[in-house]
Design a protein that fits this description.
alpha/beta, TIM Barrel, three-stranded antiparallel beta sheet, 33% helix, binds (4S)-2,6-dioxohexahydropyrimidine-4-carboxylic acid, binds zinc ion
């Protein structure tokens, strides 16, 4: 049985939501990860430093006793973001980064940015302050094929933006394509990319395997196999610009198994095991710690976690469902099957 000991990992992209949902999901991330970048797409979105400070307290109240976990907060950019509040929030240690949701790209993005032209002064101020911009990298025009939206964003929005604001540091979140991986690598001195477990494990066939599979649906949507293989190569390459970010995105079962189902894969309970499976299959376990525990902190200018954790290649049964108090149930990645690795310490 293989076993791997490495520094406690961090998750550089999570959705915790709020209230009873947050209470149900935070413990899974807090037990497995030292820190997490928390997405701000609540209703209403987290748009000010005061809102982020409150939200951070509500998250901390859900962390189990004896678990050391630090949420890192982000600001939801809108066409009207106040650059002063944003930068002051960053300097005060409240905002680690700011998130660009193109308006209507995904869950709770209606208040997102309608054009980067509208937030140029904000982006200039972020570049000056060294505050990273996190992007949901998809164009939103309805006429663009959904499988091409990330590649078009890289070409039409991100590449010109990198030229326009040369000092801006950018994370392309949840990359799903060869084009995304290539753009980040070409600018690795100031770009990073998170990669989710589902985009490493699956391609778009998984959405239709034996029928329509709502729990495999997330945005950006799973792509064809050649992109999956490109992502597996990127994640296991040892390049410092690629790091772990699950995009764990819980939605209640009945809202995913619906006529117009929500986008998001809830992976927090099995995330580390899922990534380990990929690295084991790629014979790259020696590069796992860089991806999971070193590259992310290096990009954000933080020290890696000191604590070590150990996982063994012993299958662990995963529950069919997880209860969310009074609201419904969640179906996690690997639900009703086994996760191939489990944590020992
Ligand atoms: O699948 C997704 N779910 N993609 C996103 O960008 C947002 C997320 C969510 O908040 O549910
Ligand atoms: Zn996300």
């Amino acid at each position: 049985m293989r076993s791997l000991t490495f520094r406690r990992p961090d998750d550089w992209h999570v959705h915790f939501r709020d209230s009873v949902m947050m209470k149900a999901v935070v413990p899974y991330t807090a037990r497995a990860f030292g820190r997490a970048i928390v997405m701000p797409n609540l209703t209403p979105p987290v748009t000010t430093a005061a809102m982020a400070a409150d939200y951070r307290q509500r998250i901390m109240a859900c962390v189990p006793e004896g678990v050391a976990f630090t949420p890192l907060m982000t600001c939801y950019l809108t066409d009207h973001t106040d650059a002063k509040d944003l930068i002051a929030g960053h300097k005060a240690g409240i905002f680690t980064a700011a998130k660009l949701y193109p308006a209507h790209a995904t869950t709770n993005s209606a208040h997102g940015v309608t054009s980067v032209d509208h937030i140029m002064p904000v982006l200039e101020a972020m570049a000056e302050a060294g505050m990273p911009l996190l992007t949901h990298g998809e164009v939103t025009r309805a006429e663009v094929d959904i499988f091409d939206r990330e590649a078009r964003f890289a070409e039409e929005i991100l590449a010109p933006l990198l030229q326009r604001v040369p000092k801006l540091r950018v994370v392309m979140e949840h990359i799903t394509t060869q084009e995304g991986a290539d753009l980040v690598l070409a600018h690795k001195d100031r770009m990073g990319a998170t990669i989710t477990p589902q985009h490493l494990l699956y391609n778009r066939n998984a959405l239709f395997q034996g029928g329509l599979r709502p729990h495999m649906y997330c945005l950006p949507v799973l792509k064809r196999e050649r992109h999956q293989l490109a992502l597996r190569k990127a994640a296991t390459s040892g390049e410092a610009c690629y790091f772990l970010g699950t995009d764990t995105a819980p939605h209640l079962r009945h809202l995913k198994e619906a006529d117009c189902g929500c986008a998001g894969v809830f992976s927090a309970p099995v995330a580390v095991a899922a990534y380990l499976q990929v690295f084991a299959e790629e014979n790259a376990l020696d590069r796992f710690e860089a991806f999971a525990s070193l590259n992310g902190p290096a990009f954000y200018g933080l020290a890696p976690n000191d604590e070590r954790v150990t996982y063994v290649e012993r299958p662990a049964r995963i529950a069919e469902e997880i209860e969310v108090d009074g609201a419904g149930r969640l179906v996690s990645l690997f639900a009703g099957t086994a996760a191939p690795w489990s944590q020992t310490v």
